[in-house]
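=== RUN LOG ===
request id: a7f3
mode: sequence -> structure
chains: 1
length: 94
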Amino acid sequence: MMTAKKFGILSVANISALLYAIFGLIAGLFIALLSALFSAVGEDFTPLTFGLGFFSIIVFPIAYGVIGFIGGVIGAALYNLIARWVGGIQVELE
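=== RESULT ===
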């Protein structure tokens, strides 16, 4: 068994930011699809509804990525602090 005693804060933050940005892209695509569907089916087509859906494809990945980066920094820093007290997570590698 090996023990993970410390994580590189920036490496965790970068991975977390990328994962969250991917989730944000998926959420943005879903919102854009729903927005396009509702604007096409609805009686009062407004470019604003369609535009907000398209806007979500750009904004969601950026916002989720920033939140993921900040969460990764906080999470890795807290893990490193707590791992000093309790010894870290034991991992079996092969």
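=== NOTES ===
DSSP finds two helices and two strands in the chain.
The beta strands are 2-4, 89-91.
=== END ===
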